[in-house]
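[job 4417] fold queue: 2 targets
>>> target A
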Amino acid sequence: MTDLAKTLIKKLRVDPGEKIRLRDRDPRDKSLFGDEQETKASTAALAKDIDTLQDRLYAEGSRALLVILQGTDTSGKDGTIRSVFNATGPLGVSVHAFGPPSKLELEHDYLWRVHAVCPRRGTIGIFNRSHYEDVLIGKVKKLAPEKVIEQRYEQINAFEKMLTENGTTILKFMLHISKDEQKERLQDRLEEPAKNWKFNPGDLEDREHWDDYQDAYETMLHRCSTEWAPWHVIPADRKWVRNAAVANIVKATLEEMDPQYPKVAWDPKDYEVR
């Protein structure tokens, strides 16, 4: 693990039980990185390193990595996936975006649809939004009784602990942007024809509840950052900083997992391809 990765993890990780105020975390912080272009080049190199480690994880076939990305609208979940995992082989990576639950999903408990798409052994699974919607949107829009929302924090912790005890390492990233940055990105979606499809009028309604969502995120971070599945608050106003921070932590985590190619029971020297 590089010194930069160690510093990033120490600075950005939410310790178990820690109460944080998002207003005290600068979403434009770039202090741990140098030149923008050099950092972008470094992130591209990290993506290739992640591909190499993912290949070993796939060959090993006994463990998995789950990467969870949460953040307000326009925080850059799609962009993070493209930047950090653009070099990884498609066989060993799965991406699942969580939208409103279907009728079938609503007929089950809220974690049912999540468990069904958790990464199989040997792969990296990426969640674009996740089960945490049920304590974010669910809390702000009062989609469930307060007592039910309260129960979900410990249920989620227990669910994630079960995954880790069965061979899945979990990384959770909260992409932290400012209200002003969100305004610029939403306006960009209105002005750029190629981005019009990304705009959802409902995003403006959610924006009116900005403070409520910030409170919900703070509660989520406090209640659900655990030793087995820690949260990291990523400064995301600057896309290049966001991508670099996530890439460094993902690579460091895979290095710590240290997947190995399986040893074969035969000697390659005994065979000849003719």
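>>> target B
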Amino acid sequence: MTKNINQGQFNRRGFLTASSIAVGALGLSSLGLNSRAFAQNTSLSDLTLGVATYRGQESYFTEDAGTANRPYKVDYAEFAGGNLIVEALASGSLDIGSMSEIPPIFSIQSHRQPRLIAVIQGDVNNQVFLIPKDSKIESIGQLRGKRVGYVRSTTSHYFLIKALKEQGLTMKDITAVALTPQDGFSAFQSGQLDAWVIYGVFIQLAKFRSGAGS
């Protein structure tokens, strides 16, 4: 069974409640597209737009959005997290993608700033600290010296920093292990982590695999 550490004051509601749609960091045109898309083509019919998607998420290029009969092609690429989308935008291998507001902040600190062109309002508080079934840990403060998994440059990373700060701790007070969601899931299930800070579908997946209730 997996249990959640009480989040208490670490809820982000009312502070950060939006996700963003971003375009590439360099060479942006007035249309909000990465110059990669226009490097060799001047006709929209010859243009292929590189668009990021998440596993299980519907594309925002849909009939409901009125974009079914677009004059250009769309090449979808699936990503596991917004941090990877921002990196792809910065490298020029992607034209547009959506993510929570946190990855662009970490990207700006690395001097790789994407341009935010739209905001999608929604609840992004689906963040938890997962603890193994037989763990004695019952509070954030007890994570000192423990191995804690998180996803670098995402809401998971921000949530961990914020939660530790509220307890007078920093990332240096724990053994922070940056992992992809998939690798974090494997490490958590195999007992290599004392806690895992994660979001979204991986919360339910970890609970299901460990026999926890909802």
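[job 4417] complete. Note on B: The beta strands are 3-4, 18-23, 48-54, 73-79, 96-100, 115-121, 127-131, 147-150, 175-178, 195-199.
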